[in-house]
Design brief:
It contains 17 helices and no strands. By secondary structure, it is mainly alpha-helical. The protein has a single domain, classed as Sodium/glucose cotransporter, CATH 1.20.1730. The longest helix is centred in the middle third of the chain and has 50 residues. GO terms for molecular function: proline:sodium symporter activity; sodium ion binding. It is a multi-pass membrane protein. Its main location: membrane.
């Protein structure tokens, strides 16, 4: 155990070193550099970072738990999400990148506010959007720190409470120091380790079971779960509700601020096609392999107290201490990748709110200092939420993921693709996304998140039709301009 802990400690020091590097260079002297890397990130870093930033505690904890309990039923979510990722890169990315540069927006909340021409509505949008970021990102950050605590407790042998504190402090420190560049390049480093862990672990577990054929036979023989059934043994109304829940959960992909920031930061919209291929390949891997880990864990370990910890237990069981330490670092890196991106998004929105509405004369130095302070406070808040543990990692992430998608994704899509969309409709969409996500979860939990999307769609379309004649206008999407792409810049 001492060797494993030493390996993991060295890994954490590497992450801090990356943050220190960008802190001591000129990359964080201006706000646009600190928060968005000056919109100058190449194809590979953007693609790998984008995948790493959404891998999170979801992939190696929540999604492994899904594989353990319902097996291939989770593919409804996986397949839907892959199609949405293709749509986002193919149709949304270029238009969003172009309009973002035209408006000078740094985050999605910033973008929606700046896109509306009416000053009063723009202010309301920024207020509600910033509140939504705090609600959903706060929950998301807490879920990641819970996952860090579980990983270090189960795998590394560090007490859960101490692990939560250590993980939260490390991610807060390197993000505070290095900003978006630190987030991007730690994500690239971590993404490579994630790939190694995702490929290696299920192969060893399936070999332990007896090979692929034996694995399929054993999975089919599990008495109390239809692990190989896409419908999880359900039929009729129950099957329909379960399937719709997975599909509508995946719709949240359209509005994840930490992913959208990477579309804003890419060097040129022409880099998006290459980034899309890389991202879809990595996403396909992370959305399917953890299900196999969970299913193999069900066969090897049978009933366990916490299905979400199966991957951690398996790594310790199947690898020598040094390798286990590296792979545990890879999994925890996935969690930290999401945490740093979320901290940066929330910090960006609060900083922009301060700059736009409280002190327009504030210098970049003051704003960066404020941004770093916000990251520190949010990291502490995430640690506090991890101590409280209001639900499983899956439950917390599902709420945050859907909430972000409905609150920001739908208004953005209407803004980019429907010219009649008004400022009033954008504001109504953000408010409805926030309210319906919370309301659906707490008032009709059995149908969460199925009710969120139709209600948000009805409100945005309805308000647009009512206010189309004299409502507040929104910014146009600029036409694409020819840009030379140098492959060496990637």
């Amino acid at each position: 155990m001492a060797t494993l802990q030493l390996t993991f400690g060295v890994y954490l020091l590497i992450l801090l070193a990356i943050g220190l590097y960008f802190y001591f260079t000129t990359e964080t002297q201006r706000l646009s550099e600190y928060l968005l890397a000056d919109r100058d990130v190449g194809t590979w870093p953007i693609a790998i970072s984008e995948v790493s930033s959404v891998a999170s505690g979801w992939t190696f904890f929540a999604w492994v738990g899904v594989g353990f309990t319902v097996g291939l039923n989770g593919l409804w979510f996986s397949v839907t999400m892959i199609f949405i990722i293709v749509f986002m890169y193919r149709y949304v990315g270029s238009r969003f990148r172009r309009q973002s540069e035209s408006l000078g927006s740094i985050t999605i909340a910033d973008h929606l506010s700046l896109a509306v021409e009416d000053e009063r509505l723009s202010f309301y949008i920024r207020v509600v959007a910033t509140l939504s970021i705090l609600v959903f990102m706060g929950a998301y950050i807490g879920a990641q720190i819970i996952a860090v605590g579980e990983a270090m407790d189960t795998g590394v042998g560090i007490d859960y409470l101490a692990a939560v504190a250590v993980g939260g402090v490390v991610v807060g420190l390197y993000t505070t120091l290095g900003g978006f560049n630190a987030s991007i390049w730690t994500d690239v480093f971590q993404g490579i380790l994630i790939f190694v862990a995702a490929v290696t672990l299920p192969v060893l577990m399936i070999m332990e079971v007896g090979g692929w054929s034996v694995f399929l036979s054993e999975a089919a023989a599990v008495d109390d779960a239809a692990l190989l059934d896409l419908n999880a043994g359900l039929a009729g109304q129950a099957m329909l509700i379960a399937t719709l829940a997975w599909v509508t959960f995946a719709f949240g992909t359209i509005g994840q601020p930490h992913s959208l920031m990477r579309l804003q930061a890419i060097r040129s919209e022409r880099h998006l096609s290459g980034a899309a291929v890389i991202a879809v390949a990595f996403q396909s891997l992370r959305l399917t392999v953890p299900l196999l880990i969970g299913m193999a864990g069900r066969i090897i370990y049978g009933s366990v107290e916490d299905p979400e910890s199966v991957a951690m237990v398996a790594i310790v069981d199947f690898f020598p201490a040094v390798i286990a330490g590296i792979l545990l670092a890879a999994i925890i890196s996935a969690i930290l990748s999401t945490s740093d991106s979320m901290l940066l998004v929330a910090s960006s929105d609060l900083t922009r709110f301060y700059e736009e509405r409280i002190d327009p004369e504030a210098s970049d130095t003051e704003l960066i200092l404020l941004g770093r302070g916000v990251i520190g406070v949010l990291a502490i808040g995430g640690i506090a939420l991890a101590f409280l543990r209001p639900g499983t990692i899956f439950e917390i992430i599902e709420f945050a993921y859907v909430g972000l998608g409905a609150t920001f994704g739908l208004p953005l899509l209407f803004l980019l693709f429907w010219e009649r969309t008004t400022g009033e409709a954008v504001l109504a969409g953000i408010i409805t996304g926030l309210v319906t996500s919370i309301g659906n979860l707490y008032l009709v939990p059995d149908l969460f998140p199925i009710l969120v999307w139709p209600l948000c769609l009805i409100v945005i379309v309805g308000v647009t039709l009512v206010t189309a004649a004299d409502g507040a206008g929104v910014a146009d999407v600029p036409e694409p301009t020819p840009q030379r792409v140098d492959p060496a810049d990637d």
